[in-house]
From TrEMBL, chain A:
<feature type="region of interest" description="Disordered">
    <location>
        <begin position="500"/>
        <end position="522"/>
    </location>
</feature>
<feature type="transmembrane region" description="Helical">
    <location>
        <begin position="380"/>
        <end position="399"/>
    </location>
</feature>
<dbReference type="GO" id="GO:0005886">
    <property type="term" value="C:plasma membrane"/>
</dbReference>
<dbReference type="InterPro" id="IPR004995">
    <property type="entry name" value="Spore_Ger"/>
</dbReference>
<dbReference type="GO" id="GO:0009847">
    <property type="term" value="P:spore germination"/>
</dbReference>
<feature type="transmembrane region" description="Helical">
    <location>
        <begin position="308"/>
        <end position="330"/>
    </location>
</feature>
<feature type="transmembrane region" description="Helical">
    <location>
        <begin position="405"/>
        <end position="423"/>
    </location>
</feature>
<keyword id="KW-1133">Transmembrane helix</keyword>
<feature type="transmembrane region" description="Helical">
    <location>
        <begin position="435"/>
        <end position="455"/>
    </location>
</feature>
From TrEMBL, chain B:
<feature type="transmembrane region" description="Helical">
    <location>
        <begin position="187"/>
        <end position="207"/>
    </location>
</feature>
<feature type="transmembrane region" description="Helical">
    <location>
        <begin position="148"/>
        <end position="167"/>
    </location>
</feature>
<feature type="transmembrane region" description="Helical">
    <location>
        <begin position="302"/>
        <end position="322"/>
    </location>
</feature>
<feature type="transmembrane region" description="Helical">
    <location>
        <begin position="219"/>
        <end position="242"/>
    </location>
</feature>
<dbReference type="InterPro" id="IPR004761">
    <property type="entry name" value="Spore_GerAB"/>
</dbReference>
<keyword id="KW-1133">Transmembrane helix</keyword>
<dbReference type="GO" id="GO:0009847">
    <property type="term" value="P:spore germination"/>
</dbReference>
<keyword id="KW-0812">Transmembrane</keyword>
<keyword id="KW-0813">Transport</keyword>
Length: 522, 372
């Protein structure tokens, strides 16, 4: 029966839809139940979690129920499938199909005609019912497996905003989206990726808001993936992004349905991967990675100020150690005299040049952070005590670093936590080190060179055709009102411009609230 | 076409703005001061028409050959051989021009910031960085220019505001003490900068909105003029008659800023502005050289030329002048009117335009005669 499996494998490589349809019906079920069982037994050989239960429908027809342990709702199978079907028939000869229609109290029943469909249905937890003398089987929608409840996402906390987050089940995730977007124009295309895992991937978009070529491009890129397994959306991200050698994320990752929905409403495409609470949003730009969903729930002035704060701290997290090094090493005249005196005083005991001092401290801090992330919770307290010693007064007293360096490292650490998305904070944490080296060798000139190199790299990036730095470069005045600032909602009349000019206006203009406007009817 | 990317007219304008102002903002005041004295702020007004003229001619030529750069249409206008020769002359002028720019950059960084660092490291770093951007293509340079310009204006504004306590109006007076002539004479030195606007003949074919090309170019000239006027005014108000003694007066002026004993020694700010601007400037010219060379050699792709050309201009820049005395002599001659930029920025295009115009007239005439 390896033939069946091989043909399944070939199927995944088929790009052509026509061929795929042919293949779906290529391994049809036999009319004979024993023959069918033989095939399925050999397919699920040594699979102790697959249960085959044979019984007789109404004392007349032989039938077989197949399900996978732990993935189907056994109580419902007992009460709604086995019990009614095993009852004696009123009449003597009865068509088992009719009986099923009359007695089976299960909401979702699909007819299946091939072994491929059998395997697909079993894998998602639906029990299969095969009848003697019938070339079609029944897939019963009684899947039920252990999943986490919808909880507040731990990675993206908000002060104000919905507290629900995506979970590991793609079905639940789509339902979270559907609960927010009631329009039938919310479309979901399902693809299966992964030779063995057969992971469900859903491309979600709103019809008429997303560019069709964009959707086509994204599905093409996903279909091109041929890999053993997809365990997390990171696999998809890495395999579909435009520039693989860039440290910058070119896809937005979120755990929050409200963020996903707001991106859908801006014409972007959300990619849901089964088995992970992290969904992907494409295309994305550099600036949208700095936006939090909360920006739109607070007053626009506060949101704008918060955004500026984030950009400020972005620069601090990238540049502060380098600036410290450059100024201490090359441009001491920039420091006010009184401060310079205390700095010189505290650096007197330190045997290293500023660059080495900064590298030691920054690497220690990164190590501490990594340790804090991975350690079991019980040991966490110990790490924080040790951490406080390592980057604290003890380090200064030991004569390893100066007071000011501790300040710099602590501030840099805090700064990198103000960036709302973890994945955009990482490249800046990483790029800090080469810039520190540049600062140590060339001073401020080196820092500027490093910055320009980063900027040049970012200018070359595109995310699914959208320039990474847009709407700043190339400049799109219309979109600037939701980039560095967050304009009031009644000003955000147009959708962000992505690739095509698609459905430009998202709301009625002139919605500024004012008591003069009075009520409608007047 | 050899360049697949497209830039907007606005991006081109901003690129040109950086290309002119980056060095201008530092070196123009003292260069002009020699002739114009306290009227240096008027000189940009007299030089501005040359910039407008350069843009106008480049645009007119672009109208005749909308999909070609000057290297290509010079062959159309003058015939293959003469066209190639003219293209070579133009490219050589550009090569030397960009090399001198890089030399200036290296010299400035070494003398002002990093006296102990070898010059080839400074120059090599900049050339590599520019090569990275040029390899990205015109789009990347356009975007970089756009990203840098708000920072530029912000820092420029901050510096001007912080210099306000140090100004004294009477240093600017009397305006036009000896009539208009000193400021007009001073403006001659500015032609070097304004003639560089001609280089837009390399960018006009790649605009998304070509009809705005001229408008944006002209606008760029005017903004450059205004920026230079502001710079010169502030420099003359701060320094008065000692302006001449500084190589880069604006930079030196920021050294005087001292507010609340905390905001002092802000020349790093000027350096940041200037470095970013110089980067764009070198990128713009570097790109022009690379594109021009590729088109002159009829290559289908210019990217393979980026590094070799970068190496060339790096070495040229190292060897540009034997010593600073020679450089000073060179810049003195340039400020007196012996300028390469004027040749490739204005004169060659003007010559091409006239030839094209005369040939066109003849063609019309012949056609008219035939019809008769």
């Amino acid at each position: 029966m390896s033939q069946v499996f091989n043909r399944r494998k070939i199927k995944f490589n088929q790009k052509n839809k026509q061929q795929q349809d042919d293949k779906l019906n290529s391994n049809p079920l036999y009319p004979n139940l024993d023959q069918n069982l033989e095939v399925l037994h050999s397919l699920y050989k040594d699979c102790s979690d697959v249960v085959f239960r044979s019984f007789v429908i109404a004392d007349q027809t032989k039938a077989q129920l197949i399900y996978i342990k732990g993935m189907s709702n056994i109580e419902e199978v007992d009460s709604n499938v086995l019990t009614p079907l095993m009852q004696k028939a009123d009449q003597n000869s009865i068509n088992p199909k009719v009986l099923i229609e009359q007695r089976l109290s299960v909401a979702e029943v699909t007819r299946i005609e091939s072994f491929d469909a059998c395997i697909d249905q079993l894998s998602i937890g639906n029990p299969i019912l095969l009848l003697e003398g019938d070339q079609q089987g029944f897939a019963l929608g009684l899947s039920k497996w252990e999943k986490r409840a919808v909880e507040e996402p731990t990675g993206e906390l908000v002060v104000r905003g919905p507290r629900e987050g995506f979970i590991e089940s793609a079905e639940v995730n789509t339902s979270l989206l559907r609960r927010k977007i009631k329009s039938p124009q919310l479309k979901m295309k399902t693809l299966k990726v992964g030779r063995y895992t057969q992971t469900t991937i859903m491309i979600t978009y709103i019809e008429d808001l997303s560019d069709e070529t964009l959707i086509e491009e994204i599905s093409q890129r996903i279909k091109r993936i041929d890999i053993d397994g997809i365990l997390e959306s990171g696999y998809i991200e890495e395999l579909i992004q435009d520039n693989s050698y860039s440290p910058f994320p070119q896809v937005l990752v979120t755990e929050r349905p409200d963020t996903a929905v707001s991106n859908l409403l801006e014409g972007r495409v959300v990619i849901i991967v089964d088995g992970t609470p992290f969904v992907l949003v494409a295309p994305t730009t550099f600036y949208s990675l700095f936006q939090s969903g909360e920006d739109y729930y607070h007053h626009f002035m506060i949101a704008t100020a918060t955004r500026w704060l984030r950009f400020l701290f972005l620069f601090i997290s990238l540049l502060l150690p380098s600036l410290y090094i450059a100024i201490i090493t090359y441009h001491q005249e920039m420091v006010p005299t009184t401060l310079l005196l205390t700095m010189a005083d505290s650096r007197e005991a330190v045997p290293f040049p500023a660059l080495v001092e900064a590298l030691i401290m920054e690497i220690t801090f990164e190590g501490l952070r990594e340790a804090g992330l991975r350690l079991p919770k019980q040991v966490g307290a110990a790490v924080s005590i040790v951490g406080a010693l390592v980057i604290g007064q003890a380090a200064v007293d030991a004569g390893l670093v100066s007071d000011h360096m501790v300040m710099v490292v602590a501030l840099t650490g805090i700064a990198s936590f103000t960036i709302p998305r973890y994945n955009i904070a990482i490249p800046f944490r990483m790029l800090r080190f080469p810039i520190m080296l540049l600062a140590g060798t060339f001073g401020l000139v080196g820092i500027m060179m490093g910055l320009l190199a980063i900027l040049t790299h970012m200018s070359t990036l595109r995310s699914f055709g959208v320039p990474y730095l847009s709407p700043m470069a190339p400049m799109k005045g219309r979109d600037m009102k939701d980039t560095l600032m967050r304009a009031p909602l009644w000003k955000l009349n147009t959708r962000p411009h992505l690739t095509g000019e698609y459905n430009k206006y998202r709301q009625d203009s002139d919605q500024k609230p004012s008591p003069d406007k009075g009520s409608e009817g007047e | 076409m050899i360049e697949k990317g497209k830039i907007s007219a606005l991006q081109m304008g901003i690129m040109m703005y950086h290309a002119i102002i980056a060095t201008g903002i530092l070196f123009i005041p003292s260069t002009v001061y020699e002739a114009a004295k306290q009227d240096i702020w008027i000189s940009p007004i007299w030089a501005c028409p040359l910039g407008l003229l350069s843009v106008y001619i480049a645009y007119k030529l672009h109208k005749l050959y909308p999909n070609h750069t000057i290297i290509q249409y010079s062959e159309h206008i003058l015939g293959t051989f003469l066209g190639k020769v003219l293209g070579l002359v133009l490219l050589l002028l550009l090569y030397t021009s960009v090399s001198v720019m890089i030399w200036q950059y290296g010299e400035f960084v070494v003398s002002e910031f990093l006296p102990h660092t070898p010059k080839f490291v400074i120059i090599g770093m900049m050339v590599l960085l520019c090569a990275f951007a040029v390899h990205g293509g015109l789009e990347v340079i356009g975007r970089l220019a756009e990203m840098v310009v708000p920072v530029f204006f912000l820092l420029f504004l901050i510096i001007i505001i912080l210099l306000l306590p140090d100004i004294e109006i009477k240093r600017m007076l009397p305006v036009m003490e000896n009539g208009m002539m000193p400021s007009v004479k001073g403006s001659v030195a500015l032609y070097t900068w304004f003639a560089q606007f001609g280089i837009i003949y390399f960018f006009l074919p790649f605009l998304t909105n070509r009809e705005k090309g001229m408008k944006s170019g002209m606008f760029s000239v005017l903004v450059v003029t205004l920026t230079l006027m502001f710079t010169n005014i502030i420099v003359i108000l701060v320094f008065g008659s000692v302006t001449e003694n500084f190589n880069a007066p604006l930079m030196s002026a920021t050294r005087y800023i001292s507010i609340a004993e905390f905001l002092s020694h802000l020349e790093a700010l000027v350096m940041a502005i200037w470095l970013a601007g110089t980067f764009i400037k070198i990128c713009v010219f570097y790109y022009a050289v690379v594109l021009g060379t590729a088109q002159w050699l009829n290559l289908s792709n210019y990217r393979s030329l980026v590094l070799p050309v970068g190496f060339l201009i790096g070495v040229f820049a190292m060897q540009a002048f034997l010593n600073s005395a020679e450089a000073a002599e060179h810049f003195r001659l340039v400020s007196q009117g012996l300028m390469d930029t004027l040749v490739y920025g204005t004169m060659i295009p003007m010559f091409l335009f006239f030839v094209a115009y005369i040939r066109k007239l003849r063609i019309f005439k012949q056609r008219g005669e035939r019809e008769r």
